[in-house]
Specification:
The chain is mainly alpha-helical. 79% of the residues lie in helices and 0% in strands. It contains 14 helices and no strands. Helix 5 crosses helix 6.
């Protein structure tokens, strides 16, 4: 388990998923208010194409397509970290409520403070997620942390924050309320190079931190006693992983709004494809990228025949189906274990 050698199946599955995500993102460049053929997009990507096509692809669509891959990677990593720490497939940042804390912080910043500066929103989103994580951790602590208790407390805190958000929105100016409401649906369509570049820089540091902590996460999966025998201090390592996991969700929430269920589904789907006993940060990141890119492509295809739908609503609809299936599977597993 602690070997640094990457299993062949894990490497192959991750590579295929990343390639699939890139291919889906490339196809998404063809869709929009001004449809393009795939060969026209390819011509632009290799340095040719008409000037108007270059503007559409390079200036307008690539930041959005890139964001689906980057945000999917972040959500996949965040989900893998929390599912590993809680040892529960429901231990996702959006289920536990950490993204709700980030969302509340942004709602307060936009409505009460009145600023929409990217760095201000990114900063408060991070702080909101961390404060929520601390509150959930303290309330769930009873001579240690159990994954199921953490999830239940997180759901309760998330519900309270949701009520607060609804109250603030109903009391806000109509323009601010519409802005927050649209932002809260989880949309990547408003991403531009202006917001994507700083997001990408921060994402590199977060992914780097997750990669450095991957070995510690594997050791923690064996239990605290075993982790200590391997030279790991569990409490500082768990705190560092907690901050990193919250940072993945907070960054996505700050840039695009809350995008649900990708963090929940990606680690478990990746684990089934890789046939591994535990979650893998690499495979989860690849699966998250593929899922979010596919959800965005689906939203674009729906917009061609109906109207534009934020990708966050697509992931919630698909994720709800997955969550029902997961709950039924877990219930059957527990009932089978009691027999």
């Amino acid at each position: 388990v602690l070997s640094s050698r990457l299993p062949v199946r894990l490497a192959v599955v991750s590579a295929v998923l990343f390639a699939l995500a890139a291919s889906i993102a490339r196809v998404s460049l063809t869709l929009g208010d001004y449809p393009l053929a795939l060969d026209q997009v390819t011509a632009v990507l290799i340095g040719g194409g008409e000037a108007f096509h270059r503007t559409i692809v390079l200036e307008w669509r690539i930041p959005v397509a890139l964001s689906t891959v980057v945000f999917g990677v972040l959500l996949g990593i965040g989900g893998a970290i929390f599912q590993s720490l809680t040892r529960n497939p429901l231990g996702s940042p959006d289920v536990i409520g950490f993204d709700a804390g980030s969302y509340t912080a942004v709602v307060v910043t936009i409505i009460l403070i009145g600023t929409r500066n990217y760095w201000s929103i990114a900063g408060v989103a991070m702080i909101g997620g961390l404060v929520t994580a601390l509150v959930v951790y303290v309330l769930a602590y009873r001579r240690g942390i159990q994954g199921f208790r953490l999830i239940i407390v997180g759901i309760a805190v998330s519900a309270l924050l949701g009520s607060l958000n609804a109250y603030l929105i109903t009391r806000a100016d109509i323009t601010d309320a519409m802005t927050v409401g649209f932002w809260g649906a989880g949309s990547v369509s408003r991403v531009t190079w202006t917001s994507m570049v700083p997001t990408l820089i921060v994402a590199v540091f977060i992914v780097g931190a997750a990669a450095l902590l991957a070995e510690a996460l594997k050791k923690l999966e064996l239990g605290d006693d075993s982790a200590v025998t391997h030279g790991l201090r569990p409490t500082p390592a768990r705190l560092a992983l907690l901050v990193t996991g919250v940072a993945t969700v907070a960054l996505v929430t700050a840039a695009a709004g809350p995008i649900g269920f990708v963090a929940l589904a990606a680690p478990q789907l990746a684990r089934r494809l890789t046939r591994s006993a535990g979650v893998s940060l690499l495979a989860s990141a690849a699966m998250g990228a593929a899922l979010l890119a596919a959800a965005y492509l689906l939203s674009l295809m729906i917009a061609q025949v109906y109207r534009s739908i934020p990708v966050g609503l697509i992931t919630v609809c698909l994720g709800g189906i997955y969550l029902i299936w997961l709950l039924i599977t877990e219930a059957r597993a527990h009932s089978g274990g009691r027999r």
